[in-house]
Automatic annotation (TrEMBL):
Originating organism: Clostridium collagenovorans DSM 3089
GO MF terms held by the record: uroporphyrinogen decarboxylase activity
Listed name of the protein: Uroporphyrinogen decarboxylase
Biological process annotations from GO: porphyrin-containing compound biosynthetic process
Domain Uroporphyrinogen decarboxylase (URO-D) intervals: 14-347
């Protein structure tokens, strides 16, 4: 067996590592989170559809995933439509794949007045998620930072009336967009409040805020104010937050800092070096290993080298850097590639130097 194929072991729990880094202390390795989404079902051996009816199945899959890989976060999340569904949107429920939007909650702006903010204890699948959060936090919360991934107010507003209609409203009816965002924001606050009661932290998903979807101008006018209010609401409750935005975000780097989140997870299409040069002194950056070409389709060698390359670009970032996939991993991502991602972070260890990374890059996994 080669030196590189030996078993690497963590010397700290993810929570111990996070606390030490926050104090500027040495750790055993760089933070690494493969960012599994519904692929946790494959780890746990259940169907994805079980997450829609069983808090125990969802929680156990999160717990099993943490214990399988030892990543630096445990995330309770299933799909982008939890809040919009609770406000009246209709869903497609595949037997063993991710829930998708079937119909938005309303079909016209005239129906906005009929929308009501969610009740997390009653509406749709929200109680299932809240109960799962409680189970996960009680079971592994002393080992790893546990978070609820909440779809943010701007993105959730899109699913209330439909993506195409909302995109047109950005231009034709700004007032309606603001009304949708306001009610979506209130739902985010209510869901987050219930989540915080379980002891978990909060992460925010805002895919519709991407510069790939809307212009930076529209983000500043419609997305940013409501995301900032949500983040301020969380801070008032003593909870920090991070945000992930899919696609290109270079046009809104400074805006992400200004909304007040503590961490920014970037897509693989974003230039990591550019992001760090622009805002790395103001916010922690995580990312941005390609979830599809590398993690899903790549070889172990390609995964390892991609992780090393990301670390080389990111580890000097002033506010910190953590390795993640650039978005949630595809469901069928090979388990061995996820292990390889984690083991590469362990192989890199601590402290990190360019010379060490160059040496590791020159070596093959199979030497």
């Amino acid at each position: 067996m080669s030196q590189l194929m030996k078993q690497f072991r963590d010397e700290m729990t993810p929570l111990e590592r996070a606390i030490a880094l926050s104090k500027g202390q040495d750790v055993d390795r760089i933070q690494c989170n493969p960012n599994l989404s519904n692929g946790i079902a494959r780890v746990s051996g259940c169907k994805i559809s079980e997450f829609n009816t069983s808090s125990k199945a969802l929680a156990q899959a999160v717990i099993d995933t943490h214990r399988a890989f030892g990543g630096d976060g445990a995330k309770i999340f299933t799909d982008l439509f939890i809040l919009s569904e609770a406000m009246g949107a209709k869903m497609k429920y595949p037997d063993d794949n991710t829930v998708d939007l079937l119909e938005p909650a309303i079909t016209s702006v005239d129906e906005i007045k009929n929308l009501e903010p969610v009740n997390p204890c009653r509406d749709a699948r929200l109680p299932i998620h809240i109960e799962a959060m409680s189970i996960v936090q009680n079971e592994i919360g002393k080992e790893v930072p546990c978070t609820a991934l909440i779809v943010g107010p701007f993105t959730s507003a899109f699913f209330l009336i439909g993506v195409q209609k909302m995109t047109k409203l950005l231009i034709t009816n700004p007032e309606a967009v603001h009304e949708l965002c306001k009610i979506s924001l209130e739902s985010c606050k209510r869901f987050a409040s219930a989540a915080i009661e379980t002891g978990v932290g909060i992460s925010i998903a805002e895919p519709m805020s991407s510069c790939t979807v809307i212009s930076p101008k529209h983000f500043r006018e419609f997305g940013k104010p409501y995301i900032k209010e949500f983040v301020d609401f969380l801070k008032a409750k003593g909870v920090g937050s991070s945000i992930h935005i899919c696609g290109k975000t270079n046009g809104i780097f400074d805006d992400i800092v200004e909304v007040g989140v503590g961490g920014f997870s970037i897509d693989n299409v974003v230039d990591l070096s550019e992001c760090i040069d622009k805002i790395g002194s103001k916010i922690k950056i995580t990312g941005n290993v390609d979830p599809s070409t590398i993690m899903y389709s790549g070889t172990r060698e390609e995964v390892r080298k991609s992780v090393i390359q990301c670390v080389k670009k990111g580890y000097k970032s002033p506010k910190g850097f953590g390795v993640m996939s650039g978005c949630g991993l595809p469901v069928e991502t090979p388990i061995i590639n996820i292990h390889t991602m984690m083991d590469t972070a362990r192989e890199i260890g601590w402290p990190i130097t360019d010379e060490k990374l160059d040496k590791l890059m020159s070596m093959s996994l199979y030497e």
